[in-house]
Design a protein that fits this description.
By secondary structure, the chain is an alpha+beta fold. The chain has four helices and 14 strands. The protein has a nine-stranded antiparallel sheet, with helices on both faces. A three-stranded antiparallel sheet has the order 1-2-3. A two-stranded antiparallel sheet has the order 6-7.
Length: about 220
């Protein structure tokens, strides 16, 4: 049985939110916290999230990420002439709350049978493939490294880049998932930083290890 809970502890001058999922625990400084213990975050666009799941919304500042990753874009001017900071914002769920952790990627891999009007278009500027329903390919789509080929034995582990929404060519963001022990973190990457996904997820690995270590201090 899954247990996910949130409470708080003060240690010296620092306050943490404690996130328990099964046998794993994170102690996350309040400075990263936006919303916690929400029964259902209706604005999440992942198709495979359990609507009864509880989750927490967290933000890592663009400055912290840019200081940690060479070449990361601190901000850009979007289509509304707003200087948009490239913060990493996402939700921490219990992994057992997710019915199909790779559900969005699998839908893209099987686009020929799962979409009404399947589309697989090569994006030269990104050197990636845009995959989705032809009727909505300019509204939401997936990005992947190669055209899908379900005739292969299995979808490659690193094939899927993310599920995207926004305005092309560069004012869009893509949602990805990151798994750490019993935690499932869905977060957004801006188009400008898609080429840095390996570095971003190495950064997240270190960040989750850090949050875990605070519980042991």
């Amino acid at each position: 049985m899954l247990f996910i809970g949130f409470n708080y502890v003060k240690e010296s001058f620092r306050e943490y939110g404690i996130v328990n999922v099964s046998n794993s625990k994170l102690c996350i400084p309040k400075s990263y916290e936006l919303i916690v213990n929400v029964p259902y975050l209706w604005f999440i666009d992942d198709e495979d999230l359990d609507e009864n799941a509880a989750g927490g919304l967290y933000k890592i500042s663009a400055q912290e990420v840019a200081d940690s990753i060479t070449g990361y874009t601190y901000s850009h001017i979007n289509q509304y002439n707003v200087d948009l900071k490239h913060e990493i914002t996402g939700i921490i769920w219990g992994l057992n709350q997710i019915g199909k952790p790779n559900g969005v990627a699998e839908a893209a891999w099987n686009v020929q049978t799962e979409k009404t009007e399947p589309a697989v278009d090569f994006n030269e500027s990104l050197n990636l493939y845009e995959i989705g329903d032809r009727r909505f390919i300019d509204t939401w789509w997936s990005l992947a490294k190669t055209p899908p080929n379900p005739r292969l034995d299995a979808m490659p582990d690193d094939w899927f880049i993310g599920s995207c929404i926004g305005k092309k060519p560069m004012n869009f963001r893509c949602k990805r998932s990151f798994i750490y022990k019993d935690f499932y973190f869905t977060y957004d990457v801006q188009a400008h930083d898609l080429h840095l996904i390996p570095q971003i997820e190495s950064f997240l690995q270190v960040k989750f290890e850090e949050w875990e270590s605070y519980c042991k201090a």
